[in-house]
Amino acid sequence: MRLIALLLAVFPLAVQAQQDSRLQSLQTGDASRGWEAVGRLNMQGVGFCTATLISDTLVLTAAHCLFDRRTGVRLPEDRLEFLAGWRTGRAEAIRGIRRSSIWPQFDFAAGAELGNVPADIALLELDRPVRTTAILPFRVADRGVETGDSVAVISYARNRAEAPSIQESCHVVEQRHDGITVFSCDIDYGASGSPVFIVEAGEPRIVSVISARVESSDRPLSLGMVFGERVRQLADQLSPGAGAAGAPVRPGQQGARDSARFVRP
Known about the structure:
Elements: E1 2-4, E2 23-25, H1 29-32, E3 38-43, E4 47-53, E5 58-61, E6 80-84, E7 93-102, E8 122-126, E9 150-157, E10 160-175, E11 180-183, E12 195-200, E13 203-209, E14 212-214, E15 222-225, H2 230-238, H3 253-258
Parallel strand pairs: 1-14
Antiparallel strand pairs: 2-10, 3-4, 3-6, 4-5, 5-8, 6-7, 7-8, 9-10, 9-12, 10-11, 11-15, 12-13, 14-15
């Protein structure tokens, strides 16, 4: 997780009065049901991030998760591993990474600069598809968010690396014109790449991923990006014509989504 030091005055406190829920650990099978497509992305010798299946072969995360933060060198795919639904020592599926694609404007050398956040997005192609009814990929939302909207975040992080945690309700503090979304969501190291969900067409869909945490704040503030067409374009780079970000929900997927805990906006 990158820290971005900013003056708090940069962000309005318009949603300060809205109540955010607390983090809840998804340590049991019942608690995590419906969220198995969210997993841990292990970077050998570096650490881990959070990532999410958006098709049976594509995983969405933050671009800076693909770099060694000590050397600035992009990690080779054979040092990356996705653990879908990782919980208390086991995963629903474990896959290696065949290829990866990051947004061209992302500049790891620029560090935690605010202008880097909108480009901090990456797609990974798995070495083998995940095809099981126990893991159902999430769609990317067709719409964006507005200031005051309620969202949810699922993440792995420091001191909670062995099971995901969900914050069922946090809020959009500001939707900025530069493509940065400011959330009141509680995140920590390891939460980079965590999916941010809204409810659309009756199901949770991904509207952003976590890029960084704001350091100079007395309350949780985290940063994500507006997707626009970026997820689709990254998917096209990995698999031309696949259109994975907008793939139809497979039969039976809606039933699993109904069992997932989620506070609707």
